[in-house]
Fold this sequence. Notes:
Elements: H1 12-35, H2 47-72, H3 83-112, E1 118-120, E2 124-126, H4 136-167, H5 172-178, H6 183-192
Antiparallel strand pairs: 1-2
Amino acid sequence: xxxxxxxxxxxxxxxxxxxxxxxxxxxxxxxxxxxxxxxxxxxxxxxxxxxxxxxxxxxxxxxxxxxxxxxxxxxxxxxxxxxxxxxxxxxxxxxxxxxxxxxxxxxxxxxxxxxxxxxxxxxxxxxxxxxxxxxxxxxxxxxxxxxxxxxxxxxxxxxxxxxxxxxxxxxxxxxxxxxxxxxxxxxxxxxxx
Length: 193
Protein backbone atom coordinates (compact mmCIF):
# COMPACT_ATOMS: atom_id res chain seq x y z
CA UNK A 1 0.00 0.00 0.00
CA UNK A 2 1.46 3.32 -1.08
CA UNK A 3 1.65 6.17 1.41
CA UNK A 4 2.48 8.91 -1.13
CA UNK A 5 0.59 9.90 -4.26
CA UNK A 6 1.82 8.79 -7.67
CA UNK A 7 0.89 9.73 -11.21
CA UNK A 8 -1.40 6.65 -11.18
CA UNK A 9 -3.40 7.58 -8.07
CA UNK A 10 -3.66 8.82 -4.53
CA UNK A 11 -1.69 7.28 -1.69
CA UNK A 12 -3.04 6.35 1.71
CA UNK A 13 -2.40 9.74 3.36
CA UNK A 14 -4.26 11.73 0.67
CA UNK A 15 -7.16 9.29 0.70
CA UNK A 16 -7.43 9.42 4.50
CA UNK A 17 -7.31 13.23 4.46
CA UNK A 18 -9.99 13.32 1.76
CA UNK A 19 -12.48 10.90 3.26
CA UNK A 20 -12.03 11.76 6.95
CA UNK A 21 -12.30 15.49 6.27
CA UNK A 22 -15.30 14.95 3.99
CA UNK A 23 -17.11 12.93 6.66
CA UNK A 24 -16.19 15.44 9.38
CA UNK A 25 -17.29 18.46 7.33
CA UNK A 26 -20.65 16.92 6.40
CA UNK A 27 -21.19 15.82 10.01
CA UNK A 28 -20.24 19.31 11.23
CA UNK A 29 -22.79 20.85 8.87
CA UNK A 30 -25.48 18.51 10.21
CA UNK A 31 -24.47 19.18 13.82
CA UNK A 32 -24.41 22.94 13.25
CA UNK A 33 -27.79 22.90 11.52
CA UNK A 34 -29.27 20.91 14.42
CA UNK A 35 -27.62 22.71 17.32
CA UNK A 36 -28.72 26.23 16.38
CA UNK A 37 -32.30 25.09 17.03
CA UNK A 38 -31.57 23.85 20.56
CA UNK A 39 -33.12 25.77 23.41
CA UNK A 40 -31.53 26.50 26.76
CA UNK A 41 -33.24 23.52 28.40
CA UNK A 42 -31.92 20.95 25.95
CA UNK A 43 -29.40 18.52 27.47
CA UNK A 44 -27.23 19.16 24.39
CA UNK A 45 -27.29 22.97 24.65
CA UNK A 46 -23.65 23.11 25.82
CA UNK A 47 -22.21 19.78 24.65
CA UNK A 48 -23.18 20.11 20.95
CA UNK A 49 -21.37 23.46 20.49
CA UNK A 50 -18.36 22.09 22.43
CA UNK A 51 -18.12 19.17 19.99
CA UNK A 52 -18.62 21.50 17.02
CA UNK A 53 -15.85 23.84 18.19
CA UNK A 54 -13.45 21.01 19.05
CA UNK A 55 -13.80 19.27 15.70
CA UNK A 56 -13.63 22.65 13.94
CA UNK A 57 -10.26 23.42 15.54
CA UNK A 58 -8.90 20.00 14.60
CA UNK A 59 -10.02 20.61 11.00
CA UNK A 60 -8.41 24.07 11.07
CA UNK A 61 -5.08 22.54 12.10
CA UNK A 62 -5.42 19.67 9.59
CA UNK A 63 -6.16 21.93 6.61
CA UNK A 64 -2.65 23.44 6.18
CA UNK A 65 -1.13 19.97 6.63
CA UNK A 66 -3.39 18.72 3.85
CA UNK A 67 -2.35 21.65 1.63
CA UNK A 68 1.30 20.94 2.27
CA UNK A 69 0.84 17.23 1.55
CA UNK A 70 -0.88 18.08 -1.72
CA UNK A 71 1.88 20.47 -2.80
CA UNK A 72 4.68 18.01 -1.90
CA UNK A 73 3.18 15.04 -3.76
CA UNK A 74 2.90 14.37 -7.47
CA UNK A 75 -0.53 15.02 -8.92
CA UNK A 76 -2.25 11.93 -10.30
CA UNK A 77 -2.80 12.09 -14.04
CA UNK A 78 -6.00 13.72 -15.25
CA UNK A 79 -5.47 13.03 -18.95
CA UNK A 80 -8.93 11.48 -19.26
CA UNK A 81 -10.47 14.90 -18.52
CA UNK A 82 -11.22 17.51 -21.14
CA UNK A 83 -9.39 20.86 -20.85
CA UNK A 84 -12.57 22.42 -19.45
CA UNK A 85 -12.93 19.61 -16.87
CA UNK A 86 -9.30 20.06 -15.80
CA UNK A 87 -9.82 23.78 -15.23
CA UNK A 88 -13.11 23.13 -13.40
CA UNK A 89 -11.46 20.48 -11.22
CA UNK A 90 -8.63 22.85 -10.31
CA UNK A 91 -11.11 25.64 -9.50
CA UNK A 92 -13.32 23.39 -7.37
CA UNK A 93 -10.46 21.88 -5.38
CA UNK A 94 -8.79 25.19 -4.57
CA UNK A 95 -12.19 26.82 -3.91
CA UNK A 96 -12.75 24.09 -1.32
CA UNK A 97 -9.51 25.02 0.44
CA UNK A 98 -10.33 28.74 0.48
CA UNK A 99 -13.93 28.14 1.57
CA UNK A 100 -12.88 25.74 4.32
CA UNK A 101 -10.23 28.12 5.64
CA UNK A 102 -12.72 31.01 5.73
CA UNK A 103 -15.42 28.78 7.25
CA UNK A 104 -13.14 27.50 10.01
CA UNK A 105 -11.70 30.93 10.77
CA UNK A 106 -15.18 32.46 11.00
CA UNK A 107 -16.16 29.69 13.43
CA UNK A 108 -13.06 30.48 15.48
CA UNK A 109 -14.02 34.18 15.55
CA UNK A 110 -17.57 33.37 16.70
CA UNK A 111 -16.22 31.46 19.68
CA UNK A 112 -13.35 33.77 20.66
CA UNK A 113 -14.92 37.21 20.12
CA UNK A 114 -15.35 37.63 23.89
CA UNK A 115 -11.68 36.75 24.50
CA UNK A 116 -12.35 33.19 25.70
CA UNK A 117 -10.17 30.34 24.45
CA UNK A 118 -11.62 27.29 22.71
CA UNK A 119 -11.17 24.04 24.59
CA UNK A 120 -10.51 21.16 22.21
CA UNK A 121 -12.09 18.25 24.12
CA UNK A 122 -10.10 19.20 27.22
CA UNK A 123 -6.85 18.20 25.48
CA UNK A 124 -5.64 21.77 24.91
CA UNK A 125 -6.98 25.30 24.53
CA UNK A 126 -6.78 27.49 21.45
CA UNK A 127 -6.37 31.07 22.70
CA UNK A 128 -8.30 34.05 21.42
CA UNK A 129 -6.08 36.18 19.22
CA UNK A 130 -8.34 39.22 19.35
CA UNK A 131 -11.06 40.26 21.75
CA UNK A 132 -13.87 42.02 19.96
CA UNK A 133 -17.28 41.67 21.64
CA UNK A 134 -20.05 41.86 19.06
CA UNK A 135 -17.95 40.15 16.38
CA UNK A 136 -19.77 36.86 16.98
CA UNK A 137 -22.91 38.05 15.15
CA UNK A 138 -21.32 39.09 11.81
CA UNK A 139 -18.89 36.15 12.04
CA UNK A 140 -21.88 33.86 12.61
CA UNK A 141 -23.65 35.23 9.53
CA UNK A 142 -20.52 34.69 7.42
CA UNK A 143 -20.06 31.21 8.92
CA UNK A 144 -23.61 30.19 7.98
CA UNK A 145 -23.27 31.45 4.39
CA UNK A 146 -19.89 29.72 3.98
CA UNK A 147 -21.29 26.47 5.41
CA UNK A 148 -24.07 26.41 2.80
CA UNK A 149 -21.59 27.36 0.04
CA UNK A 150 -19.29 24.53 1.13
CA UNK A 151 -22.15 22.01 1.02
CA UNK A 152 -23.19 23.26 -2.42
CA UNK A 153 -19.63 22.88 -3.71
CA UNK A 154 -19.41 19.42 -2.11
CA UNK A 155 -22.59 18.42 -3.96
CA UNK A 156 -21.12 19.63 -7.28
CA UNK A 157 -17.88 17.76 -6.51
CA UNK A 158 -19.73 14.54 -5.64
CA UNK A 159 -21.96 14.73 -8.73
CA UNK A 160 -18.93 15.29 -10.97
CA UNK A 161 -17.16 12.29 -9.40
CA UNK A 162 -20.25 10.10 -9.92
CA UNK A 163 -20.55 11.34 -13.53
CA UNK A 164 -16.92 10.45 -14.23
CA UNK A 165 -17.31 7.05 -12.58
CA UNK A 166 -20.66 5.87 -13.96
CA UNK A 167 -21.08 7.73 -17.26
CA UNK A 168 -17.51 8.33 -18.44
CA UNK A 169 -16.20 5.04 -16.93
CA UNK A 170 -13.17 7.00 -15.75
CA UNK A 171 -10.88 5.68 -12.97
CA UNK A 172 -10.84 9.06 -11.18
CA UNK A 173 -13.20 8.10 -8.35
CA UNK A 174 -11.71 4.66 -7.83
CA UNK A 175 -8.23 6.21 -7.49
CA UNK A 176 -9.49 8.29 -4.56
CA UNK A 177 -11.26 5.27 -3.08
CA UNK A 178 -8.68 2.51 -3.49
CA UNK A 179 -5.51 4.24 -4.64
CA UNK A 180 -3.37 3.58 -7.72
CA UNK A 181 -4.67 0.81 -9.96
CA UNK A 182 -1.28 -0.90 -9.99
CA UNK A 183 0.66 -0.01 -6.81
CA UNK A 184 3.73 -2.11 -7.65
CA UNK A 185 4.08 -0.44 -11.06
CA UNK A 186 3.48 3.01 -9.54
CA UNK A 187 6.02 2.59 -6.78
CA UNK A 188 8.62 1.23 -9.26
CA UNK A 189 7.97 4.15 -11.62
CA UNK A 190 8.23 6.74 -8.80
CA UNK A 191 11.39 5.07 -7.42
CA UNK A 192 12.97 5.20 -10.89
CA UNK A 193 12.62 8.99 -10.99
